Amino acid sequence: MLQTQELQINIGPQHPSTHGVFRMLVTVDGETVVDLKPVFGYLHRNHEQLAEANTYLQNMPYTDRLDYFNSMANNHAYAMAVERLTGIEVPERAEYIRVLMVELTRILNHASAVGFMINDMGAWQTPLAFGMREREKILDLFEMASGARLMCNYFRFGGVARDLPPEFIPNLRELLRALPAYIDELERLLRDNEILLQRAIGIGILPPEVALSYGVSGPVLRGSGIPYDVRKAEPYSVYDRFDFDIPVGKVGDVYDRFLVRIEEMRQSKRIIEQVLEQLPDAKGGHINPKARQNVRPPVGDAYARIESPKGELGFYLVSDGSTKPYRYKVRAPSFINLTPLADMCRGYKVADIVVILGSIDIVMGEVDR
Amino acid sequence: MPELSPTELRARLAEVMPMALVEPEPLAVTPPPSHGPQPGLFQPADPVIKPEHLIEAALFVRDTLGYAYLSDIAVVDYLYAGCFELVYRFYHPAGGSSIVLRVRVPRDHPVLPSLTPHWPAANFHEREAFDLFGIEFTGHPYLRRIYMWDEFEGFPMRKDFPRQGDKYLGGDEG
Q1: Is the dihedral of CA B79, B80, B85, B89 positive or negative?
Q2: Were A231 and a residue from A70, A239, A320, B115 both cysteine, which residue would form a disulfide, CB within 3.0 to 4.6 Å?
């Protein structure tokens, strides 16, 4: 009988597949994972305390840097929290523009998330380039509207910073025409590849009751078969006016989370098409002209959450009646979605860890804050 | 979709565990003035729970009321009121708005029971609260700093943590 012993290995923080600076202390028995302890904080900048030193509007560009793939979604959640705190109303047209931007963000995020995940499975760089291809076109649209590609800083209290430029809609329609074929292509990359399927099916299973008890959200929760989506569960903005489905997985493995993301891109496209139909009739301008940006909310608190591409993104604000927040708390979906990582990896092989991590889809800017 | 207003939640809790509820005092969010009444007073409508009854109340919310999704635990440092308030936010998996339980612990002795052994979703929220605010959760299986390094002294999100010139930033230039 060969004597074996458990071994502790360290993955990260500088590792190409940890999506930033994330470290995991893994205990292995041979090739099998026995335990895993995530270690955070390499990108910690105490974002929440920085926010307490800034005025409400000065925090808007900071929220871009939380989840730097989805700056529009972060802007939306923060703007909603401040609007709840102050009671600012948002015109209809501005709400449609917001939904449009956040749904474009969802397509962008899921395309790159799928690309990165296949990259983690060992298909080096080529699928990632596929994932990034349409992302570039969406970033061009963001640049037209906001002037920036990644750190958009586009939302304001009571609306958005400027109206859509005239060339935006024709370019968007062109993108939408190319999108279905692109999503099919991205799906076939994994679905038709025997090697990738073997690395995805039955790996990193998260049963539905476990997923719920861990408080995960977004595609991870829906991949486990729980149809919980903030857009339907607690409709905000104008989401109650659109017709769309919530895709769910069957067993909660890596493959299910991949399929949920692909299907969500199709649903986002459906929402964008409905936005384009309803946008010309929407009342009001791109911003509430009465909304002051230098807000001074009354003493109180407010919580607003949206379905960001990664899960439930929430902002909890407490005001002391001054121009700066007394408390600014971010409920970051990537951070909470990492809670069950140890359970998801236990019993699988060392090589599966990066695939499971890739299927959760984290951004360290948001995890470490 | 299930909806439960703060007053309804308070009434439900008062039926089952009247001992657990505290009559909430308004919290001062601004320094006390030299004369006249306190200007900034914050009075939330949600029920405030005694720390020792937190587990009981949270499990009641989950198992009886069905709010099985623990979304967030936010800590607020009310320096002028001398307490930390923890805001537990729960959602129903069928949808609807949140219900909130609040727990207040004194600033000089911030200890309360950990929810993690009963409800693993609390794990990282509690570690974050421990790291940044120094709140101790008794019974937490792995209560260690999550963002700062283990040797770090002090709790950076407390209102009385020096904004400048602490030992890590190196004197006044920091």
Answers
A1: negative
A2: A239
- Tell me whether A46 touches chain B (CB under 8 Å): yes
Is A234 within 8 Å of B77 when comparing Cβ atoms?
no
Alpha-carbon torsion B48, B51, B57, B59, what sign?
positive
Sign of CA dihedral A303, A308, A313, A315: negative
Residues 139-178 of A with CB under 8 A from B: none
Which stretches of chain B are DSSP H helices? 6-16, 54-63, 123-133
- Non-local (6+) Cβ contacts of A277 within 8 A are none
pLDDT in tens, B57-105: 999 989 988 899 999 999 999 888 889 999 999 999 988 888 999 999 9
| Token pair recorded at residue A346 | 């236990």
CA separation for the pair B13, B30 (Å, rounded): 31
Give the torsion through C-alpha atoms of A214, A217, A221, A226, to 10 deg. Answer: 100
CB neighbours of A143 closer than 8 A, spacing ≥ 6? A149
Smallest CA-to-CA distance from A146 within A159, A131, A162, A158 is with A162
β pairing state of B111-113 and B136-138? parallel
Name every residue whose Cβ is closer than 8 Å to that of residue B129 and which is 6 or more positions away in sequence. Answer: B73, B75, B86, B135, B137
Q: Where are the alpha helices (DSSP H) in A147-253?
A: 168-191, 194-200, 208-213, 219-223, 230-233
Identify whether the C-beta of residue A78 lies closer than 8 Å to the C-beta of residue A60.
yes
Helix H or strand E segment including B87: strand B83-91
Q: With contact defined as beta carbons under 8 Å apart, do A365 and A63 qualify?
A: no
Taking the model in full, what pTM does it have?
Answer: 0.91
A29 close contact with B: CB closer than 8 A = no
Between chain A and chain B, how many beta carbons pairs sit less than 8 Å apart?
105
Rounded to whole angstroms, how far apart are CA atoms B24 and A335?
32
pLDDT score for A222:
92
What's the alpha-carbon Rg for chain A, to the nearest Å?
Answer: 21
Q: Give the type of residue at A233.
A: A
Residues of B in contact with A228 (CB under 8 A): 69, 93, 95
**Which residue, among A188, A182, A143, A194, has the nearest Cα to A165 in the 3D structure?**
A143
The pLDDT-based confidence of B174 (bands split at 50, 70, 90) is very low
Q: Is the peptide bond before A289 cis (omega within 30 degrees of 0)?
A: no
Q: Which amino acid is at B58?
A: A
- Is B31:B84 a contact under the CB 8 Å cutoff? no
pLDDT, one tens digit per residue, over A197-227 is 888 888 889 999 999 999 899 999 999 999 9
Residues 6+ apart with CB under 8 A from B48: B21, B22, B23, B24, B101, B102, B103, B104
Rounded to whole angstroms, the Cα distance separating A351 from B116 reads 29
